[in-house]
Design goal:
It contains five helices and five strands. A five-stranded parallel sheet has the order 3-2-1-4-5, with helices on both faces.
């Protein structure tokens, strides 16, 4: 298990996720590991109107989301990861937990580092917890970085 050679750090660009990026970057620097930042673009819900899809170009919108995510990932690496760390980023489309686990397996990640958001109440009951699903499904160790409540 140790030393880690590849660390996967999924992000949704939230403040807790930035904390996880910092932790993953520090670990990557300590172990001379490759750091892979990942963003998953979720499916775009589509509602049909009686006249069709109202001319909305879903493919173009998803491409715009991907392009924006790539720029944001680059910014997070520059801001939160030491220059000495070998870091790269990936943007994929799909359901977050399943894509995180899939990418970790395909990339041969030794560790997944992600943040908790403290979701509770109806959102957690309906949607479940992405970190919880990743912990259950991942084939490698998962480090959860908890965002302390103030």
């Amino acid at each position: 298990m140790l030393p880690f050679k590849k660390i996967l750090c999924p992000t949704d660009f939230s403040e807790p996720a930035c904390k996880a990026i910092k932790a993953a970057g520090e670990m990557a620097e300590k172990f001379s590991a490759e750091l892979i930042l990942l963003h998953v673009v979720g499916p775009v819900p589509v509602l049909e109107t009686p006249t069709g899809l109202a001319g909305f170009d879903i493919a173009a919108y998803q491409q715009e989301l991907s392009d924006s995510a790539k720029i944001s990932l680059k910014s997070r690496v520059e801001k939160h990861v030491a220059k000495s760390v070998n870091a790269r980023s990936i943007v994929v489309h799909g359901e977050a937990a399943h894509e995180i686990v899939r990418v970790a397996k395909e990339e041969g990640a030794d560790l997944i580092v992600l943040s908790t958001h403290g979701e509770a109440g109806w959102r957690h009951r309906i949607f479940g917890s992405v970190p919880g699903k990743v912990v259950r499904l991942a084939e490698c160790p998962v480090l959860l970085v908890h965002m302390a409540k103030v």
